[in-house]
Amino acid sequence: MMRRYGDSPKAGQSYTFRPGVYVILPRAGKLLLTHQSSPYPEFQLPGGGVDPGEHPLTALHREVFEETGWRIADARRLGAFRRFTWMPEYEIWAEKLCVIYTARPVFALGDPTEPGHTAHWVPTDVAAQVLGNPGERDLVTRHIL
Questions:
Q1: How many Å apart are CA 113 and CA 103, to the nearest integer?
Q2: Which terminus of the chain, N or C, has fewer Cβ atoms within 10 Å?
Q3: Handedness of CA 134, 138, 141, 144 (dihedral sign)
């Protein structure tokens, strides 16, 4: 059985299935996080949704570049969890399947291209506390600290 974080599914509520890929990017005692300013400010692991027909690793590389401006290498799957949540940017209730990887940040090509995102190198112990998602916090704590 897959671990679930956050709220339980609401009885009678329809959920759109949303697979996503996210990555822990460690370097020199810090993690590369993205800060999303809207719809509410939050630190997150870089990543996001897998488009229909897109390979998960292709999505991972695309999302990391869009949200941080960085290229990555050597992605390795760490685990997965589910979340049932309201996604205000899409105006849907979603059942999110969050697959978490670790990878090596290789180099930055520039600023993030995703509007409202900024890249931040955060000390690992602080990152484990400031991530807005409890599933991400748990995986960072279990696999990196």
A1: 20
A2: N
A3: negative
Measured distance CA(65)–CA(131) in Å, rounded = 19
Segments of 37-91 assigned E as strands: 42-44, 47-49, 70-87
Look at the alpha carbons of 124, 42, 68, 21 in this order and tell me if their dihedral is positive or negative. Answer: positive
In tens, the pLDDT along 19-41 reads 999 999 999 999 999 999 998 89
Taking only Cα atoms into account, the Rg of the chain, rounded to an integer number of angstroms, comes to 15
Distance CA 68, CA 117 (A): 7
CA separation for the pair 21, 50 (Å, rounded): 7
- Tokens in use for 37? 């300013």
Assign residue 6 a region (left: φ > 0; alpha: ψ between -120 and 50; beta: otherwise). left
State the residue for tokens 């960072």.
140
Q: What is the pTM of this model?
A: 0.95
Q: How far apart are CA 55 and CA 68, in angstroms?
A: 20
SS3 6: coil
